[in-house]
User: Which sequence fits this backbone?
């Protein structure tokens, strides 16, 4: 009889799912685990997040550039596909690329994996702190950059981008730093 | 201080493992770690805890001192 699949609610993972990722059960993603491909994925994913965050400026951009409705549809479709591919799929691929180590519970990791996981969280925390600080400086001193406007830009895209960035930063750091073995 | 930033630890894991006909995966299964961790250990890019060092020594039927040293042995790797 198969053992019950434990759910780690706080981490949003299951025991079987985590073990499957850790043991490379799905060999069709093997290509993704080379350092080069992991780093390409991190760059594409970061660009995807950047595009999402810039979504807040679209109403301003549309007015300033006098974009026609046909062009607007094209922009929205292309941007939508880009966001879905790079952010939503990228988020899943990123987890696979680092074997889900960032979200795995301690009891399913070995001591080196726990060490690199902890280090990645420390770097992620520092990175995000600097990013937030940079945004704060831009809000205070950037004359052209207005993050929140009463009409149009309500900053919601920025919040969505921040959510993706914060939740995946440890995996991004891991994907970038891990060497090939 | 991080173990990795301390004095380098040299080891004979790869030589002894291959001499015993074990793959990285097999040794990893014996000591309860991921096969990548064995790779990192063999390349000297990760220094194990005392518990893991003892488990590896037991799996390879060697003394810890035969596997790990603070000085580079003839065929040892950092």
Assistant:
């Amino acid at each position: 009889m198969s053992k019950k699949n434990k759910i780690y609610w706080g981490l949003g993972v299951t025991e079987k799912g985590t073990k499957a990722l850790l043991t490379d059960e799905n060999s069709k993603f093997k290509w993704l685990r080379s350092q080069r491909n992991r780093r390409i994925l991190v760059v594409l994913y970061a660009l995807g997040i950047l595009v999402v965050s810039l979504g807040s400026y679209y109403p301003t951009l549309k007015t300033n550039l006098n974009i026609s409705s046909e062009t607007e549809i094209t922009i929205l479709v292309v941007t939508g596909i880009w966001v879905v591919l790079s952010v939503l799929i990228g988020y899943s691929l990123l987890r696979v690329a680092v074997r889900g180590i960032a979200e795995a519970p301690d009891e399913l990791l070995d001591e080196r994996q726990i060490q690199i996981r902890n280090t990645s969280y420390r770097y992620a925390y520092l990175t995000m702190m600097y990013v937030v600080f940079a945004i704060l400086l831009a809000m205070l001193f950037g004359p052209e950059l207005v993050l929140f406007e009463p009409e149009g830009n309500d900053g919601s895209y920025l919040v969505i981008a921040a959510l993706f960035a914060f939740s995946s930063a440890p995996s991004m750091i891991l994907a970038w730093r891990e060497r090939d073995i | 201080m991080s173990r990795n930033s301390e004095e380098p630890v040299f080891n004979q894991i790869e030589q002894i493992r291959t001499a015993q006909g074990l793959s990285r995966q097999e040794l990893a299964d014996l000591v309860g770690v991921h096969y990548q961790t064995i790779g990192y250990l063999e390349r000297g890019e990760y220094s194990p805890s005392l518990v893991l060092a003892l488990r590896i020594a037991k799996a390879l039927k060697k003394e810890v001192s035969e596997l790990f040293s603070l000085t580079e042995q003839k065929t040892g790797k950092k």
